[in-house]
Amino acid sequence: MELKNKILKIADKNEFTDNDIELFYKFRNDLTSGKIRAAEKSGEEWRLNSWVKKGILLGFKMGKVIKMGPYLDKDTYPLQSLDIQKNIRMAPGGSAVREGAYIGKDVIMMPPMYINVGAYLDDGSMVDSHALIGTCAQIGKNVHISAASQIGGVLEPIGARPVIIEDNVFIGGNCGIYEGVLIKTGAILAAGVTITSGTTVYDTVNQKFLEKDSEQAIVIPKNAVVVPGSKPLKSNPDFSLYCPIIVKYRDDKSDRSVVLESLLR
């Protein structure tokens, strides 16, 4: 609470003292270590920590563009030096994790991939090649983000919930999850599924379209198996609109279909 109040106090400043800069680096270190995060679960509900977003934006305002090897970026957000004690694997080939992102134990990252500031990637998860974990995205334990999938980030508006993917979720190749979408525990998204806050998703098991939650975003239910689909356009049935479809809920057969991940560890 003390750190929160101090960050909020200096968030709107345009000139900074040495004490302000020292405070920001403590904030950034707490993000990197996972002590604070942009959103956290309380019971079954997720709570947004909007002050954390303000702290991240403060770092961009405070930072100066410098040369980092062949790159040019803010000195407040350099590349992160990962902790070998966490048994993290990052294979060589152009991947990057920014300071201010939390990486849990036993995480695997395949090249090239990128994890941005404010993201939280929990223990045992895997990020495959050409994947992106955007600013403030929250990823649970034992999640597989397959090749070329994009987990969108958000800093502004401050009150917008980031993308949240809970534990034991499988995201297939070339998926896109954006705009505060919440993927609940155990869900499977087949390759090519894209979901935004405005996407219509149909549940064939319960024969209904999913409703938005209190954050005006789509929530994919626990253990749902989602595939790309379409629905006819009301004004002209000769045309269709994109509409992901929940075809079933996870069972032993669908569990076996993602067992390959454990063989790679």
Describe this structure in words.
Helix 1 packs across helix 2 and helix 2 packs across helix 3. Strand 1 and strand 2 form a beta hairpin. Helix content is 18%, strand content 29%. By secondary structure, it is of the alpha/beta class.
Topology, element by element:
Layout: H1 2-10, H2 18-33, E1 39-42, E2 45-48, H3 50-62, E3 65-68, E4 71-74, E5 89-90, E6 96-97, E7 102-103, E8 108-109, E9 114-115, E10 120-121, E11 126-127, E12 132-133, E13 138-139, E14 144-145, E15 150-151, E16 164-165, E17 170-171, E18 176-177, E19 182-183, E20 188-189, E21 194-195, E22 202-203, E23 208-209, E24 219-220, E25 224-227, E26 230-233, E27 236-242, E28 245-249, H4 252-256, H5 260-263
Parallel strand pairs: 5-8, 6-9, 7-10, 8-11, 9-12, 10-13, 11-14, 12-15, 13-16, 14-17, 15-18, 16-19, 17-20, 18-21, 19-24, 20-25, 22-28
Antiparallel strand pairs: 1-2, 3-4, 22-23, 25-28, 26-27
Helix pairs in contact: 1-2, 1-3, 2-3
Question: Which key features would you list for this structure?
Answer:
10-stranded mixed sheet, 18% helix, 265 residues, alpha/beta, 6-stranded parallel sheet, 5 helices
Name the overall outline: globular
Specify the biggest β-sheet: 10 strands, mixed
Number of strands: 28
Gyration radius (Cα, Å) is 19 Å
Q: Which residue ranges are poorly predicted, with pLDDT under 50 across at least 5 consecutive positions?
A: none
Mean pLDDT: 93
State the helix count: 5
Tell me the β content.
25-35%
Structural class: alpha/beta
Strand line-up across the major sheet: 5-8-11-14-17-20-25-28-22-23
End-to-end distance? 38 Å
State the helicity in percent bands: 10-25%
